[in-house]
Structure formats: C-alpha cells, structure tokens
Amino acid sequence: MSLSPSLDSLCLRAQPLSEMAESRALVAVREALEASDARRTVWIALSGGLDSVMLARLAARAVKDCPRRLRLVHVHHGLQAANDDFEQLARRLASRLGLPLSVRHLTPSKTALKSRGLEAAAREGRLAALSACLMAGDSLWLAQHQDDQAETLLLNALRGSGGRGLAAMPPERALAVGEASPGRGQLAHERARLLRPLLGIPRHEILTLARQQGLQAGHDWCEDPSNVDQQFDRNYLRHSVVPLLQARWPQAVASLARSAQQLQEEQSLLDELAAELLAKVQVSGAEREAQGHEQGDGQGQGLNQGLDQGLDQGRAHETQLSLAELAGLSESRQRLVLRHLCQSRGWPVPPRGRLMSLQQLIATPPDSVAEVCWANAEYTVSVRAWRGQLWWQVSDTVIEQGVCHRQGDTGYARSGRQPGETPSCEWDAEARKAWRALGRGEEHVAFTSRQPGDVLRVAGRGRRDIKRLLQEADIPPWQRDQLRVARMHDGTVAGLWHPSRGWWLLAALT
C-alpha cells in the first residue's frame, strides 16, 4: 500500500481539528496534558495505525486549550515492506498537524528474534527506541485503549501470571532514560513518565470519532497486515476469542478492563507491604560498615581511615538480605519480597523454579557458598547464601545457554575473569592510586594479585596467611580475586587492598 498524492489530498479534506466534537477521549487527553510538566516535552508514539493517529490528533486539538510542547516519534521496525508506508503516513500527518516528528529506524537482531520471539523482540526494540528520545521529566504517550487492556489481561492469565500480570497495563508508570548502571536503578530526576491516556476508552469510540472527523482507513491511517495474522496470540484473541465472549457477554471488554484496574489497586497495596518487608530484611550500609569495623579491630585498620572513600566498587552492585529475617517470614511473604526486590530494581524476576531454590537457601542455609542465578536479555542475577545473608549481584551480561559458572574462592587469582567483572588492570590502577593517597612511595613496590604462600606481618599478631585474613575481614569468596597486594622488591607483602575496603591492612613495621 502506498499513499499517492490523490490519497494525500483526501487526507486534507478531513474536518479541521477545531471542529472536533467533545468526547470522552478528548477529555482524557486534555486531562493528561494538564497533568504534564509544562517545562518538559510530551512525546506521542505514532505508529500510523488508527489508535496512534487519533491520539496525535486529539493531542493536537487539546494543546490549543492547554499549551504544551508536543513531538511525534515514529519507529520504523524494518520487519515488513509496509513499514515504509507507515513512515510516509507519519510524516504526512506530522506536517498536517504542524508537529515535529522524529523517526527511529530499527535493525532487527536475529539473535533477539530467535531468543525472544518476534512480538517480544519488536516490543522491546520499539520501547528502547522511544525511550532514547526522552529527557528526564519528559512524557511518552502510547495509544493503547480498553480493548488492548482486556486482551493483555487474558494473555497474561493464559500464561499463568500472578496479580501483577493480571493487572495488565498501568495507565502510567516511570520510565528509565539514559544509561543506568546494572543493578542500581535511577533517581527520580533521571526518569520520564510513560502514559496511556486512552486506556479507559473502548476502540469502537475511537473509530466512531475518526469517522466523525471524516477519516478513512487506508487514507488517513494504515492497517498493519500483520494484525490479521492469527499465528500471533494477541491477534487470535482479538479476532477469534474476544468476539465470542462479547456475543455472550456484551460488556466483556469493559468488565475485563475493570478487573485489571481493581487488580492494579490491590497490587499497589501489595507493593507497599513488600517495600516495608524488604526494608526489614535488607542489610543496611551502616550494618555492613559496622561488620567491617568489627572484623578490622586490632588489625591495623586505623592506618587507612578515610582513604577508601569512593572505592566501594566491590559492593556497589550488590544487595544483601538477612537470612534470619527472611526465615521469619511466611513462604508467601518471602516470595513477595524476593519478587519485589527484582521488580523495583528493574532486574529480571526469578522463574518459579529459581524462586523455590532461593527459598530452599533461606530454609536450610548451606555451610559454604551456594548460588542460584537466572538472566534475561539485559541482566544476569546471581544470588549466593553466605554467612547468614543472601548476596545479590547483578551484571549486564547474559549467562550463555543458561549455564552459571561460580565465582567461588579458588585460593589464588584466576587467569581469566567472568563476564561483567572489572579487568585486573583497573583494580591495579585503583590500588596504586590509593597507595599514593597514603603518602607512600612506589619506587620499590609492585601491585599484584596474591600468590601461593603470601603472608602479611600484622601488628601485634605476627605473620598471618592472607586467605585467613580475607576470611576474617568478611570478604566474600567470589570477591577475593579482586584483592591486590603491595609487593616489595624482595617479595614480602607490605599491604592488602580490596575495592570494598581500600588499604585496610598494612604490614607492621619491623
């Protein structure tokens, strides 16, 4: 399908926006505009289909009463020949409405298509492209409506989703913008808002409004050929299942959407409870610092006070939960907390099998390090039970073929490193920088990994094996390869540095 000049002229015959009748859809869009920050930009995702075309037209009408900075953004998926027509229509509509348009072209990844499936890969790629346009505080509007909400609830129910999945699509949520460090999340000022102003409007009202405006399919909006392909689950529901439900229950779509709204309210209460429980079981930074000081008593830690600020990289990507506090919760509350931790940080939620494995760690903590891990297309999550705590570590790499290699204590430095780890040269540079901050010379010192037989002369304690000192310092086994030693020209060790501690042990003067 292509839009010829003659068809374009038909588009121009549509009624002016000023003649658009008041409707529930226009009221919803106007209210969303009024709630937006007048200093920021409202971006409208324009696919070229009926829903997004009408959302753009409604916003262009509403902005006359509520001035805001509007922009359109179109994503060219590159998955079918019709995508060129969608882009052409988007450009013509933007010109007609007098709104600036940004066009983003996607290059589908064969790996992503194979691992995630066409629908999921397209959806994730589209959202990533849209998010790339945003600045902190901006809004991104999507054109999903009540029928989409009902279909999402049904899809998630058929997948066996819990309450969060059955709550379907929220009318509004925070959206991360820019780069985020793995496992850290983002501050409020680093986020945008994703809104669905038409989520309470049924599709038939949107179609009626379009016809009242003199708009026509094929002229003023594109019909995506893939929308009739019932090999896709959503299309099968839309064309085969939902019509049967409506034949028996005419209000089926509205009822399903209303159920999703009620579940959203209930989920918000569960989130509040989960946040309270998480605060109770999470080991705070002050507690970790106190543990570190306890381990450092009598070991010369005072020699390095204040010099390890900014070097807490070893723990920056980790979260620790108390096994004792978790064990005091019911199993359902344990699952609630574990899921909430992942969802609130943007990490992948553990599959049910991994969740059961985590609960086994809580119920019967092992004597040594045990590990459970899982991944999605963005992050790998590794959880270890060690010394009364669950240690959560997140990296932006994926476990190949579902295999997770443990980073346990091998006794000495490995020749290689795990994906997502900091290269050894960076630890060397940090250790050298901190050594200079001590005011010590570098002429006769090398900064290396520990070696078999390395010992350190500790004040008041004599010679001590470095492995034992690491255990006493409560440094987890999977972090011990990050250790750097200051080695004198004669091979003796003059100090121990770790990214979580700085130079916390220096050799006693002889």
Plain-language structure description:
This protein has about 500 residues and is an alpha/beta fold. The protein is about 40% helix and about 15% strand. The chain contains 18 helices and 16 strands. It has helices spanning about 5-10, 25-35, 50-60, 80-95, 110-115, 120-130, 145-160, 165, 205-210, 235-250, 250-280, 285-295, 315, 325, 330-345, 350-365, 425-435, 465-470, and strands at about 40-45, 70-75, 100-105, 140, 170-175, 190-195, 320, 370-375, 380-385, 390-395, 445-450, 455-460, 460-465, 485-490, 495-500, 500-505. A six-stranded mixed β-sheet has the order 3-2-1-4-6-5, with helices on both faces. A four-stranded antiparallel β-sheet has the order 7-10-9-8. Helix 5 packs across helix 6 (about 120-130), helix 7 (about 145-160) packs across helix 10 and helix 11 packs across helix 15 (about 330-345). The longest helix has 30 residues, at about 250-280. The protein is elongated and about 90 Å long.
Name some characteristics of this structure.
single chain, about 500 residues, alpha/beta, six-stranded mixed sheet, 18 helices, about 15% strand, disordered N terminus
Strand order of the largest sheet: 3-2-1-4-6-5
Helical residue percent band = 40-55%
The parts where pLDDT drops under 50 for at least 5 residues are 1-12, 179-189, 292-316, 398-422
User: How much strand?
Assistant: 15-25%
- Please work out how many helical segments DSSP would assign: 18
Class computed from helices, strands and strand pairing: alpha/beta
The residue-averaged pLDDT reads 82
State the distance separating the first and last CA atoms. Answer: 86 Å
The largest sheet is: 6 strands, mixed
**Total strand segments:** 16
Outline: elongated
Radius of gyration: 29 Å
Oligomer: single chain
